[in-house]
Write a structure and sequence with these properties.
single chain; mainly alpha; Arc Repressor Mutant, subunit A; two-stranded antiparallel sheet; elongated
Length: 157
């Protein structure tokens, strides 16, 4: 995510006066109160901010990973539509991101990695995303930043 996304989050948190907010408060402020985008786009924005590391998920909600007081919000700030519209294009599917990281770490082909993931799926009866994460952990790949994406994908209603 970019500086504009950082400005959006800093604006919301400065406006609230709180360090932690429920994720729903963040996307409702962006969409319903400020009317910067649709609720669907705002939810995707908050989700992407968590995946990219701009927001840190905590029990009570989400907290910016940066000091919002250090962000200077321009007078009359209003984010562009692109800030919210391009989210789906910015991130790849978790499954393929994990495969890429395993390929680099293990120096294997994509086919070999997919075969290993398929074996894990069959043996453990789990989803391919979870199996990919499991394999990445087995090879000690850094994938902590992708865990929240897998959780949100698996535990949505």
């Amino acid at each position: 995510m970019n500086d504009e996304a950082r400005n959006v989050l800093a604006f919301i948190f400065k406006r609230s006066g709180k360090q932690t907010l429920p994720a729903s408060d963040v996307y409702l402020a962006i969409s319903m109160e400020l009317q910067w985008c649709s609720p669907k786009e705002a939810k995707a924005f908050v989700k992407e901010a968590a995946i990219s590391g701009l927001l840190v998920e905590k029990d009570a909600g989400v907290t910016p990973s940066f000091d919002v007081e250090e962000v200077e919000i321009p007078t009359g700030f209003r984010p562009s539509k692109e800030c919210f519209n391009n989210l789906g294009k910015q991130s790849k599917d978790v499954f393929f991101l994990v495969i890429e990281r395993i390929k680099k770490h293990k120096n294997s082909s994509e086919e070999e990695i997919k075969k290993e993931i398929d074996e894990i799926v069959q043996n453990k009866q789990i989803s391919s995303d979870v199996a990919a994460i499991f394999l990445a952990k087995k090879y000690d790949c850094a994938i902590d930043d992708l865990i929240s994406e897998v959780k949100s994908k698996l535990f949505t209603s």
